[in-house]
């Protein structure tokens, strides 16, 4: 019999996508609700990585060279940078997943074990049902839907007689670009599970706070709270380098998409092209896709941090009535320990993923766009 609190359908789809993209070199067993070693999955990741090393550049440049782009050298340089970013991010993500596969498997199993423990005896509906829906929305609309829209609205093809072939090649390239974002999907899968765990722990603490056995049970819940934080932070550490590179990529591609849209529109208007509006659908859809990745990453990390800190009001209820009872003293020690713990999602100690990143990206994008437009006008 399958254990309670097995992954939902949306979560299983996310795991399948992570496995297909080579991020997980092991398999998920629904009967045990655990990740297990699999030589087949590991070899599949190795073969997929080698395949991408050989054919990735050909797919990218094959699709890029068959499409007309705005005639400016700055756009060409950015296209080259786009390939360098994409190629390295996908390779590093796959290599990191292979080299840290066992550690990642143990951490994910630890997260599932905590999830089972904290949800034991509670109905599944007590979880936040909006989180799987948000994950499904991201997978369908931003990971796949926008890439399909981009493929349908490539600019004028060099050879119209083979436009279908070029569309197919371009779609493969866009799926290749979309595969970079699987590290974000893994991060969201972990963060959303952590959020639901914290939701249950905080609710139980509120229910137990006035009970006769409240101190001891709250100590046990807080230990689960701490274990969740350690597991999530451990998984973040495993994927920190891909996430770091993706954050740089998102800033670059957002600036590039806006600049590409501007130069494409200006060039078509000057040439009197009737397809000016159709030609900008591709970069706009690409911009929406990548901006959506940033939003989901930031909102998930911010929600995780806020939910983790909500246990503090439960501990504060004991402030002012601490006695010499060992249980009450333990609560006081937990309060001190909580104040020294950092629940923020930090990437290599360089920055914190929270809502301030959105403001920073908007401000920086505006500044760089002014510089790029001025350079373009002087060409």
UniProtKB/TrEMBL annotation:
Cytoplasm: is it a keyword of this entry?
no
Q: Which GO terms describe its cellular component?
A: plasma membrane
InterPro entries membership: 7TM_chemorcpt (IPR013604)
Q: What is its main location?
A: membrane
**Entry's Gene Ontology BP terms:** sensory perception of taste; signal transduction
> What membrane topology was assigned to this protein in its record?
Multi-pass membrane protein
Transmembrane regions: 6-28, 40-61, 73-95, 135-158, 164-192, 238-260, 280-304, 356-377
Q: Does Ribonucleoprotein count among this protein's keywords?
A: no
Q: Which domain of life is it from?
A: Eukaryota
* Role noted for this protein: Gustatory receptor which mediates acceptance or avoidance behavior, depending on its substrates.
Similarity-based family = Belongs to the insect chemoreceptor superfamily. Gustatory receptor (GR) family.
Its recorded name reads: Gustatory receptor
């Amino acid at each position: 019999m399958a254990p309670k609190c097995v992954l939902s359908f949306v979560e299983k789809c996310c795991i399948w996508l992570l496995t297909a993209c080579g991020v997980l070199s092991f398999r998920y067993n629904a009967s045990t609700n655990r990740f297990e070693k699999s030589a087949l999955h590991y070899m599949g990741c190795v073969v997929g990585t080698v395949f991408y090393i050989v054919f990735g550049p050909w797919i990218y440049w094959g699709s890029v060279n068959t499409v007309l782009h705005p005639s400016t050298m700055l756009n060409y340089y950015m296209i080259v940078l786009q390939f360098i970013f994409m190629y390295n991010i996908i390779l590093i993500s796959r290599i990191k997943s292979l080299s840290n596969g066992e550690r990642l498997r143990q951490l994910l199993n630890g997260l599932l074990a905590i999830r089972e423990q904290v949800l034991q005896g509670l109905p599944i509906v007590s979880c936040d049902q909006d989180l799987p829906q948000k994950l499904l929305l991201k997978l369908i609309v931003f990971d796949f839907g926008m890439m399909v829209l981009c493929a349908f609205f490539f600019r004028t093809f060099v050879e119209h007689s083979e436009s279908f072939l070029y569309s197919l090649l371009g779609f493969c390239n866009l799926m290749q670009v979309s595969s970079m974002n699987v590290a974000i999907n893994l991060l969201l899968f972990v963060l959303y599970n952590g959020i639901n765990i914290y939701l249950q722990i905080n609710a139980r603490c509120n229910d137990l706070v006035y009970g006769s056995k409240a101190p001891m049970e709250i100590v046990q819940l807080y230990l689960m709270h701490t274990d969740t934080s350690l597991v999530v932070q451990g998984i973040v550490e495993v994927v920190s380098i891909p996430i770091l590179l993706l954050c740089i990529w998102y800033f670059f591609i957002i600036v590039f998409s806006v600049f590409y849209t501007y130069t494409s529109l200006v060039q078509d208007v000057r040439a009197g092209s009737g397809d000016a509006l159709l030609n900008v659908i591709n970069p706009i859809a690409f911009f929406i896709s990548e901006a959506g990745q940033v939003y989901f990453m930031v909102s998930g990390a911010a929600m995780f941090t806020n939910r983790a800190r909500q246990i503090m009001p439960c501990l504060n209820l004991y402030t002012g009535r601490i006695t010499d009872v060992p249980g009450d003293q333990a609560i006081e020690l937990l309060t001190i320990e909580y104040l020294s713990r950092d629940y923020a999602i930090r990437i290599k100690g360089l920055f914190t993923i929270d809502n301030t990143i959105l403001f920073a990206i908007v401000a920086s994008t505006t500044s760089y766009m002014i510089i790029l437009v001025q350079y373009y006008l002087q060409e």
